[in-house]
Amino acid sequence: NAGVTQTPKFRVLKTGQSMTLLCAQDMNHEYMYWYRQDPGMGLRLIHYSVGEGTTAKGEVPDGYNVSRLKKQNFLLGLESAAPSQTSVYFCASSSRGADLYGYTFGSGTRLTVV
Amino acid sequence: RKEVEQDPGPFNVPEGATVAFNCTYSNSASQSFFWYRQDCRKEPKLLMSVYSSGNEDGRFTAQLNRASQYISLLIRDSKLSDSATYLCVVNSNTGNQFYFGTGTSLTVIP
To answer: Which residues of A sit within 8 Å Cβ distance of B?
Structure first.
């Protein structure tokens, strides 16, 4: 009963490096989301997906790309990391009934870009 | 204007106290409202949904005021384990996105 699993949990990158964050859910949820959380800013939506093969931009998409090739996985890519991308990244998923049941979050990835 | 606004606190209350948080939202078309709880360095977890008629779950009561566009959370008989940050969450008018407040910090003191 894993729910939403994020890997890695921690990462330190140098400016300009690239990386991919993986989110996997085993609840057969249609919707998946990537958020970042910064002090004083709350959770902000980066990208989301309403089904396999679909992606859409959220509130702060610049500098990130995503893919949803399989229903259970949602990948977040940073092509050229910048210090402004230092943050805690949360993946979330929901069924079509998100309006009733809300989201389930992963435990987060703490990313530091130096 | 932010979609969702909360008083960041901190609220420091003694055990057994009653404490209330408010949250205002800007989109009058919003239909879904939630309170999430987030412990330090952990992920947010759903505390409760907020229904139009108000709802209660044990010591927690949530209310919605559509006319004034705010939701509230009341915690009675506070426990040490209630210490956390409480996030107000409101959906967008498209329904696909949720907006999170910055959270209200609560510390319950022995």
So the answer is: 31, 35, 40-45, 48, 50, 56, 58-59, 90, 98-108
- In contact, A20 and A14? CB cutoff 8 Å: no
Q: How many helices, marked H, and strands, marked E, lie in chain B?
A: 0, 11
B27: which residues sit within 8 A by CB, 6+ positions away? B3, B90, B92, B93
Q: How does strand B11-14 pair with strand B104-109?
A: parallel
Scanning the structure block, which residue is given the tokens 């958020």? A35
Distance CA B106, CA A37 (A): 19
Please give the pLDDT value at position A40. Answer: 82
Q: What is the mean pLDDT of chain B?
A: 92
Residue B7, token pair as written in the block = 């008083």
